[in-house]
Each structure stands twice: as C-alpha cells, then as structure tokens.
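Please review the protein record below. Let me know how this chain folds according to its tokens.
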Amino acid sequence: MIKFLRKIRQKMLTENKFSKYLLYAVGEIILVVIGILIALQLNNYSDGLKQKKQELKIINNLKLDFEFNLSEMEKNINILKENTNASLETINHTGNKFSDDFEINGLIERIVWIPQYFPQNGFLLELVNSGNLGIISNDLLRNKLSSWLPTLETLNDREQFALEFCKDLIRYINVNGNWLQADEMATDELIVGTGFPKSGFENDNENMLKSVEFENLIENQVANSVVLLERQERCLKLNKEIIELLTSEINK
C-alpha cells in the first residue's frame, strides 16, 4: 500500500500537478493520523481488557475473603448472644433472688468468654498498601471497601475494652470461685477431654451469687457485651453489602 501511494506521489510531481499533489499529501497525512488513532484505540481496548480481567480476579479473591469474614462474624454474634443470655440468667439469681435450684456451674464458661473477631483481609490490605484500590471501577464498592478497615478498628477497640472488664470477672472467680466445679459442667471439648479431677476444696460457686461485687461484674459484662454486639452487627451489615456488590460485579 505504501509503495503504491509513493508511485502516485512521484507521478504527480513528474507531471507538475502541484495543487493535486498538495491535496493528495493532506489526504495521506489524514490517513496516517486515522491509522495512528485506530492503533491507539485498539491498544487502549487491549489494555482495558487486561485491566478488566485483573479487576475481576481481584474481585473474586475479595469475595472469598469477605465470605469467610461473614461466616466468622455470624459465629461470633451467636456466641456473644448466648453468653449474654447466660450472664442475664445469672444476675436473675443473685442476692435475694438466689435459689438453691439454680445451677451456675454450667454457665461460668459462657459468662467469662468474649469472642474475638479475626477477619481475613489479605487481598484488601494488598490493594490498599500498593495504592491499587482504584482498580475497582465501581465507586460504591470502592467506598465500602475503604470503610471496612476503619469499621474493624472500631470493633477491635470495643473488643479490647470488653476483654479488660472480663479480666476483672475472671480474677474475682479465681479468688472466690471454684474452676474445677465449673469444669465438671463444661461443654468445651478440650476441657472435657482433659480429665480434670474433682476439686479438693469445699467452696461452692453458688456462694458468688450472694455477692454484690459478683453481680456488678456480671452486669458490666452484659453492658459491654450489648455495646460490642452493636458493633458486630454494624460490621456484619457492611460485610453483607460488600459481598452483594462483589457478586453483582462478577455477574456483569
């Protein structure tokens, strides 16, 4: 094609048709520009396909992480609700509400347990730390992902606060209670499988129910658990929204 155009150009110059040659030269330049623009468009299209493919891979990896995070959060919420109910049941039998029929030993392992959340954020952290979060083209999804780590930080702060109060309760039981009695009623497989012997002391965990200090510690446990549960629910909501947006992007 180039050889053919060159021959036409030489013929025009030979025949001294300058005006026609000038018009032809302009046309040739336009053709060259159009060719360059087409090449750039094809190159941009190819780059766009590569970026879209990379984005889809990232979205699939993020979805795996957030599905794991959702499952773990749902477990934590269920545990915290059960433990909070156990604490409420306990303070319904303190002081003048004490009853010999109430069995506290089966509840102790629950009232001293604050579940901690350990999410899986490897792919998101890699995106954030590398400055590549912008590869996510969906603005709403990108904003939700940006909100995830700060939301987790708020949750973690509340967990640590609740755990500190829980230590006071554990210390109280260490001094005034009897863990071996509680272990006889434990449901945790590791504790059950340990084969602890019976306690060599006569002190009874039911005596703690007659202490206002114990009642106050349990009340604090409930209050902290309720606030922590609210943070967990907030985290769960954001997690579900992110998964919904990730799924929508995958199905496009």
